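Entry 14. Structure prediction run on the chain below.
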Amino acid sequence: MVSALDCGPCWVLTSLLMTQAQSTLRAETSLLQAWLVLLRVRIALMVFTVTLCGALLAGEWGTGYAACLEAALYVTLVTGCASILNQVLERDTDALMVRTAGRPLVTGRVEVSHAIAVAVVLGSLGTYGLVTSFGTLPAAMSLGTLVAYLAVYTPLKRVSSLNTAVGAIPGAAPPLIGYVALAGEAGPWAWCLFAILFVWQFPHFMAIAWMYREDYARAGLRMVGSGPESDGDAGRQATVYALFLMPVALLPAMAGLASVVYAAGTSILCAAYLGASIAFMFVENRKRARSLMIVSLIYLPMQFALVFLDPSVRQMLESI
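Output returned:
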């Protein structure tokens, strides 16, 4: 039996409606993907997680999990603001790099004015939430990291390779802010997590800087390893910081905040990170740089997981 929809005008109309619906869906999906790129969702997820870790470790002050999640959400909103505004400021250099030429503000998929408006809303919501729920100190710290990232780190990339060290400060701040939001002040765990995250960033970014050194040079950005006489710099710096990470990451155990379980796991993780850095130092090529980057991405969540798997920390949290 032949349906009426298979005949004449009805079939044409149905086909047109289906085609229009598919085109609309594709456009909406493309726009959603563009905003996810602007928000740097993977970085936002990392920020949310490490902020939550810092807040949870401040739990001895008798606060609940809901408050910890709330603090992490507000800090992540400010991070989303920073990510969008960073791409607004760097859209000219992004257009010159193969790695970033497809970003939404470069291609025009998202208008600059819309991006700025959304960034302002996110930053305002995050800051307002921190002020009203946790006080002025964590809100000021969050705004401070935003300013440092946008007004110092971002322009410094065009001037000096020291931008990595400067950018690592706001990059390491989320667990510190999360802790302060719940505790009202920075305790030993807050500084330990800040220090670990600060040092961890250097081998990670050295690998990225080397892999995209030609892109950075083309855009005029001063990254380690991108200069004409910088062969070996990225590998050497990655190794130095990976070596320094071992005592830094062991600080909680040395301070009595964590047990031998944490110390043993941390030693293994740091040894793996150092090994990947040394391999990259001896032979700077894309394969070893990528391996170092992958190891760095495995290291961080496992390092933070070790904190909460440690018997001493679990005992502390369960006693709340």
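The CA atoms of residues 172 and 194 lie 5 Å apart.
Filed with the rest of this week's runs.
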